[in-house]
Amino acid sequence: MAKEIERKYLVKLDTWVPQDGGVHFKQGYLNSQKERVVRVRIEGTKAKLTIKGVTTGVTRSEFEYAVPVEDAAILLDNLCEQPLIDKHRHKEVHGGKTWEIDVFHGDNEGLVVAEVELASEDEKIELPAFIGAEVSSDPRYFNSNLLKNPFKSWGKA
User: Does residue 141 carry a catalytic annotation?
Assistant: First the structure.
């Protein structure tokens, strides 16, 4: 079974400068229940269908499959819960790890988070200078929850 072990952090916007233009992501959810999440995503010129299980600690089951972009576009427009997640993803390598920095748009404008995948939950990592508070265990920051409770509705975070 595939596992995703990931930590998520807020980004200090006064210290982070994007190193590239990022890749545009448009994603939606066929199912966003806590027990199972089924996501459709177009990332640049590729598309994926992803199924994720319940998060325990910072680990959850994850299965990901390539799908035709045309099919993903139809799913996003016609079958996914609305609104969709719109963001740009930037990647930076630090301390031997690839950090994915997501800059959200639309109803989640102003939210910028960094994620790093780990080999184990207790793996020690070197944090880049732009990393702020860890939000791995805060469900508000799950993309699937940003549909129902977008960042703009939180007030000051």
Answer: no
**Weakly modelled stretches of the chain, pLDDT under 50:** 157
- Indicate which CATH number applies to the domain containing 14: 2.40.320.10
Q: How many CB atoms lie within 10 A of CB 11?
A: 21
Three-state DSSP string of 108-132: HCCCEEEEEECCCCCCCCCCCCCEE
Q: What pLDDT does 34 receive?
A: 82
Question: At a CB cut-off of 8 Å and minimum separation 6, what does 156 contact?
Answer: none
Residue 118 burial (10 A CB sphere; 0-12, 13-18, 19+):
middle
| Domain of 52, in residue numbers | 3-153
- Catalytic entry in 9, 29, 65, 141: 29
